[in-house]
């Protein structure tokens, strides 16, 4: 139902990243939690761009 580009996934990922919610607080709605974790894990493994 959700993919990594879905608005709800983006909102939840941002809220977890900003510390407003924990990963465990992401609702278990269809595959929402799975996709939010996927986004967060992908961002954690990408090294920052330095100039």
Q: Describe it for me?
A:
With 51 residues, the chain is mostly helical. It has helices spanning 7-17, 32-45. Helices cover 49% and strands 0% of the residues.
List keywords for this structure.
mainly alpha; 51 residues; 2 helices; 49% helix
Short recap of the structure:
With 51 residues, this protein is mainly α.
Whole-number radius of gyration?
A: 11 Å
H/E element order: HH
| Total DSSP helices | 2
Structural class: mainly alpha
**Poorly predicted ranges (pLDDT <50, ≥5 residues)?**
none
Mean pLDDT: 94
Number of strands: 0
Distance between the termini: 38 Å
Largest sheet: none
The backbone outline, from C-alpha atoms, is globular
What is the percent of helical residues? 40-55%
Q: State which percent range the strand residues make up.
A: under 5%
Topology of helices and strands:
Layout: H1 7-17, H2 32-45
Helix pairs in contact: 1-2
């Amino acid at each position: 139902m959700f993919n990594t580009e879905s608005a709800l996934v983006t909102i939840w990922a941002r809220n977890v990243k900003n510390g407003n919610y924990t990963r465990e607080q992401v609702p278990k709605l269809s595959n929402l939690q799975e996709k939010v974790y996927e986004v967060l894990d992908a961002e954690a493994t990408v090294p920052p761009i330095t100039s």
